[in-house]
Amino acid sequence: MPDGDRAGIACRALSKSWPGGVQAVAVFDADFDAGRTTALIGPSGCGKSTLLRLIAGLEQPDDGQVRIGGLDPARQRRQGTISVAFQDPSLLPWLSAAQNVALARKLARQPADPGKLAHLLRLVGLEGFAATRPAALSGGMRQRAAIARALVTAPQVLLLDEPFGAVDELTRRQLAQDLPPLWQTQGTTALLVTHSLAEAVLLADRILVLSPRPARIVADIAVPLPHPRRPDLTDSPAFRRIEAQARAALSLPAGAT
Question: What PROSITE patterns would the database entry show (predicted)?
């Protein structure tokens, strides 16, 4: 993707509270460089998913603003430049797996691309299930379809909330190896919410560690490891150092992930 088509993200003094006075995000400031992948990690319920929804324009902040490529997120969504994959795959039950994935291109006003569709379904392990409706797919397979749907439009901004959380460990490792090059080579700006420190180090160029609710940045960790990153990288001293740094910021014991 040419540099001029890339979109960075700027969050300025974001705050968000839910009914009952629960403050999810408080005065959050961050810039996410175009074409880079950032992992957001933090305690459960700290506001990571709320941040993604604010950045996507699916929720409005009480204060502050988000700009993506200098534009309001809602405008970017209308232009089809933002893709989101949340923990709930939210597939349309009357469409097949392939039709659910292809629908994203139609909604983004992009022409059909059967070759890319078939390639993505193969990568996520759904090649033999293209004609299958969601009710007949396992939870992990539905999640894989949702990931393919998020990638099929070649978005400028990709927001992923625990994208591999519903799949088995073997599939999770394979997807973590096969899928990131798709958005990295396109120059996509990606934000990844994960509870796995190893996954954060393996996939991201940068890790933001968030505090308990309301979400504030307590550590900003660079991940200067070369791409592409193979799974055996997890055994390297450099990988272990970064993982230990993130664990210390979370104040987790050595055996925790």
Answer: ABC_TRANSPORTER_1, ABC_TRANSPORTER_2
